[in-house]
């Protein structure tokens, strides 16, 4: 069971601390789609917050489209794709009247042979995408406020898939999709609902990416000595904001937290001169940290301990994307 920690002395409001921790748990798949969130009573006992405060956080999550309330049952993480809809209509059905019947008969036969719906979907998409991949476009989308996270995804996807990947701000996604006939949009779960709302009307597929949960790194954080100065570095300001909230929730004023984006030379130099431990949240930022430490080595009594996280994108998500694109 995921444990939530609220630091009462923090300048960050308690409701914001809880909201960010729950969203992180969902985005990192600690709470997968369909998972039932703890009741307000359970969270009140765990965090010490009033149940009204917890209810307010759950309403905020519901307004954001992340969870849904089922009367008499509880609060659940939303399944991707939203509510069920009728079978889609298309001019192609009139042009090829037997096409839907052929697809339905093929699907029925696959189910009779023991395939699940998910397995059948993967087989269909892998075959279709394999034939189209020469012209297909892979677009990564994040908000303009966190393009650093998008840069991380592009770097890792290009390396893993060995194909070009384009970064598109979420705010410009609709315009870009209106200019293309095919493609696949990739987004982490923080932005999946917004991306689907834009892509679905244009019949463009959206594939969610699971981010690394940073469990090992937060365990290290729990055991740092008091008065430690902890530095946190990433290309993504969103990762740094979330990590800072969780750090204060776990340790409060027991440790000093400094953050810096890898491309902010001034803040990065100040961080390496002060921090005893530095957590680098993505491998793309590690060379910049290494260079900053090397430049400041003569002024350092003892070089900081550097902990570099694993890839930003989980291995399972990479494997899924390869299958969906017909690259596996």
- The number of helical segments is 14
Average pLDDT, all residues? 86
| Major β-sheet strand ordering | 4-3-5-6
Multimerization status: single chain
Radius of gyration: 23 Å
CATH class of the largest domain: Alpha Beta
DSSP strand (E) fraction?
5-15%
| Biggest sheet statistics | 4 strands, parallel
Structural category: alpha/beta
The CATH topology label of the largest domain is Rossmann fold
In angstroms, what separates the terminal alpha carbons?
34 Å
Number of domains: 4
Portion in helices: 40-55%
How many DSSP E strands?
10
SSE series: HHHEEHHHEHEHEHEHEHEHEHEH
Q: What is the CATH architecture term of the largest domain?
A: 3-Layer(aba) Sandwich
Contiguous uncertain segments of 5+ residues: 81-86
Structure, explained:
This protein is α/β, with parallel strands linked by helices and 328 residues long. It has four domains: 14-77, Arc Repressor Mutant, subunit A (Orthogonal Bundle); 90-132; 136-211 and 312-328, Probable inorganic polyphosphate/atp-NAD kinase, domain 1 (Rossmann fold, 3-Layer(aba) Sandwich); 215-308, Rossmann fold (3-Layer(aba) Sandwich), CATH 3.40.50. It is built from 14 helices and ten strands. It has helices at residues 14-27, 40-47, 51-63, 91-95, 99-112, 117-132, 147-161, 173-177, 192-199, 215-222, 237-251, 265-274, 286-295, 315-324; strands at 67-70, 74-77, 138-142, 166-169, 184-188, 205-209, 229-234, 256-261, 277-280, 305-308. The strands form three sheets. Strands 4-3-5-6 form a four-stranded parallel sheet, sandwiched between helices. Helix 2 packs across helix 3 and helix 12 packs across helix 13. The chain is globular and about 75 Å long. 33% of the residues are buried.
């Amino acid at each position: 069971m995921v444990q939530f920690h609220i630091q009462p002395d923090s300048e960050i409001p308690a409701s914001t601390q809880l909201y960010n921790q729950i969203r992180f748990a969902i985005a990192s798949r600690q709470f997968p789609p369909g998972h039932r969130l703890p009741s307000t009573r359970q969270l009140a006992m765990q965090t010490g917050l009033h149940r009204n405060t917890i209810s307010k956080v759950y309403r905020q999550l519901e307004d954001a489209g992340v969870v849904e309330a089922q009367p008499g049952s509880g609060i659940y993480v939303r399944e991707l794709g939203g509510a069920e809809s009728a079978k889609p209509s298309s001019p192609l059905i009139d042009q090829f009247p037997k096409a839907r019947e052929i697809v339905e008969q093929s699907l029925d036969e696959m189910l009779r042979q023991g395939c699940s719906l998910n397995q059948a979907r993967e087989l269909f998409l892998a075959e279709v995408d394999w034939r189209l991949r020469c012209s297909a476009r892979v677009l990564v989308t994040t908000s303009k406020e966190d393009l650093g996270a998008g840069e991380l995804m592009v770097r890792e996807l290009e390396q893993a898939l060995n194909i070009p990947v384009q970064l598109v701000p979420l705010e410009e996604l609709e315009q870009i999709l209106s200019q293309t006939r095919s493609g696949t949009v990739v987004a982490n779960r923080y932005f999946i609902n917004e991306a689907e709302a834009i892509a679905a009307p244009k019949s463009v597929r959206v594939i969610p990416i699971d981010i690394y949960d940073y469990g090992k790194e937060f365990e290290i954080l729990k055991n740092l000595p008091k008065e430690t100065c902890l530095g946190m570095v990433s290309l993504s300001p969103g990762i740094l904001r979330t990590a800072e909230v969780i750090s204060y929730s776990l340790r409060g004023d027991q440790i000093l937290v400094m953050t810096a984006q890898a491309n902010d030379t001034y803040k990065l130099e100040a961080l390496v001169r002060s921090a005893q431990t530095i957590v680098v949240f993505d491998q793309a930022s590690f060379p910049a940290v290494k260079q900053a430490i090397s430049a400041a080595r003569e002024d350092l009594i003892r070089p900081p301990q550097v902990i570099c996280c694993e890839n930003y994108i989980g291995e399972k998500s990479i494997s899924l994307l390869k299958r969906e694109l017909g690259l596996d």
